[in-house]
Amino acid sequence: MLGKIIRSLALFLLVVFAVPALAQTTTDPAATTDPAATTAAATAGQVEVYAGAYILRLTNVSPRDGTFDVDMWVWFRWKGNSVNPVETFELANGIITNRLPNPQTMDGDFNYATARVQATVYHQFDVRRFPMDNHVIELEFEDANLTENQLIYIADTGTSLDPGVSVAGWDVALLEPSVKSHVYDTDYGMHATGESAAVYSRFTLPVSLERTSYGVLFKSFWISLLSVVLGLLAFLVKADDLDARFGMGVGSIFAASANSFVISDSLPQTTMVTLAEQINLIAVGVIFLSVFISIWSLRLRYKEQEDASLALDRWAMLILGVVYVALNVLVMLVDLS
Known about the structure:
Acetylcholine Binding Protein, Chain: A, Methane Monooxygenase Hydroxylase, Chain G, domain 1, 5-stranded antiparallel beta sheet, 40% helix, elongated
């Protein structure tokens, strides 16, 4: 009887302790999956595409319209047959107006394809420092169909500018190409995907436009300069010679104002006071002060204080000339916008 009790107790202990221990040693294979293996599986379908470009022309660079045109060759190198990037790439910041792909060929182990592309590209030009403004314009390439999980760009070697590329008023230089992820915070209405955002690989070609000459400054403001000079020369005319004295000053104000309208028409709408507007405001302000001082000088002559009137004219011409030059140097050296 005692032996049966001992055997029953031993069987109970075996069930209580041995079975759970056995269950712990039999682990679900999915629970022990290597995280690195999981990452590799997620990117197994990702195709690396080497991309480059040779820019032939940059034309119609328009800060006012916020656009420029580009003519270039682009190329792609990749392995496998699951993608055809030369047919599916797009400019994220522009519109391709003409695409002429060449037949696909092989470059060693890589598929190789090129296309001649003409496009209009959009860019928000910062004109606060016009006409001494520098810019970095960009060409942003993305695949129109494949997300970053399916296709990722790599900047290829050989990307460059043709030596004949020029843009009037700027020196042109190609900067370092780059690749980054661009997130579109939308599922484009495809709710079944379960993704709240789409990530695409973006290949960017930056091109710098740098002012290296004061020629544009002179061409833009020679009328304003001439208007100020004429306004100051009016001080050499006697204040009681009304037609000549005040005609020169008032005419100078209208000339400077007209020049301001012409320059503003060539720039985009902005709430900031640009360098061009600052230079024109200085010109109009100096001419207005010259007219005000002419009235003061005329009143002195009416009081028969001719010597005081002549002295006022001489000092006003000198001081206003110095102030005009100094203020222009200040706004060109210091960004007051």
